[in-house]
Amino acid sequence: MTILVTGATGNIGAQVIQHLVNNGADVRALVRDPSKADFPAGVAVVKGDFLDVDSMRGAFDGVSTLFLLNAVVPDEFTQALIALNVARSAGIERIAYLSVIHADVYVNVPHFAGKFAVERMIEQMGMAATILRPAYFIQNDLTIKDVITGYGVYPMPVGDKGLAMIDVRDIAEIAALELLRREQAAQPLPLTRINLVGPETLTGADIASIWSNILGRPISYGGGDTAAFEQNLKQFMPAWMAYDMRMMGERFLTDGMLHDEGDVERLTALLGRPLRSYRAFALETAASA
């Protein structure tokens, strides 16, 4: 009984692997370059690329459970469909797919729309899967730490509807728990969706206030200009991705990213502890600056 983890070298994938190993699971990590792999002892490393179908067939051989995480790339949708089709052909009936919350609402945001289409495939093909739908990653704000501390501005287009931000460490732990639940079940479990959210919903002003309190000086919220947000992102990411992020930011402003009733309680019970808060993240970040 082997669990294959894709996205293994990323922040979430690496943490999922560590949780699985800690729980005694037989883990296989899919990577593009095995020479750069650095995993806990006992993790089998297999070379593969989502667009190289033969490599995926080899990687999936003998696997019982799959964790599918696709990076935000232009052909993300194609990569996910190939992976799921190959998994189905390999007889894998236990899957956890990392989607995104409100994928069915943010229909004009490219990577959201792609993930929702993958969800539709999973559902209509009758695949036994947990669809994990995380909200905004708290750790995304590490990229703007210097703007907050150096310029006194919180620049993310969070808006006043609020985002149910979640710590990536909680995402990884919940994903691992779901993989283990499916792996250890006597029969493949039915399709389920789980919103992955933080303990509170925060607006741009709320987050600026948290930083102001922690840093002991005024931090203002300045994230309403999505055009400027796109231009800033283009300085360190491809133009298509910056535009994708702008579209997401515009939906933050108009719709927010909110949890459903019972989400927080469900996750708290699953973890057996409180969810990590944005304030805790900000305290850690400020202390390490």
Provide keyphrases for this structure.
289 residues; alpha/beta; 7-stranded parallel beta sheet; two-stranded parallel sheet; 45% helix; 13% strand
- Side by side, the strands of the main sheet go 3-2-1-4-5-6-8
Rg for CA atoms: 19 Å
Tell me the structural class.
Answer: alpha/beta
Q: In angstroms, what separates the terminal alpha carbons?
A: 43 Å
Helix content: 40-55%
Query: Could you give the order of the helices and strands?
Result: EHEEHEHEHEHEHEHEHHHH
Which consecutive residue ranges, at least 5 long each, have pLDDT under 50? none
Total beta strands: 9
Q: How many alpha or pi helices?
A: 11
Sheet bearing the most strands, described? Answer: 7 strands, parallel
Percent of residues in beta strands? 5-15%
How would you sum up the global shape? globular
Mean pLDDT: 96
Description:
This protein has eleven helices and nine strands. It has 289 residues and is an alpha/beta fold. The strands form two sheets. A seven-stranded parallel β-sheet has the order 3-2-1-4-5-6-8, sandwiched between helices. Strands 7-9 form a two-stranded parallel ribbon. Helix 1 (11-22) crosses helix 6 (168-184).
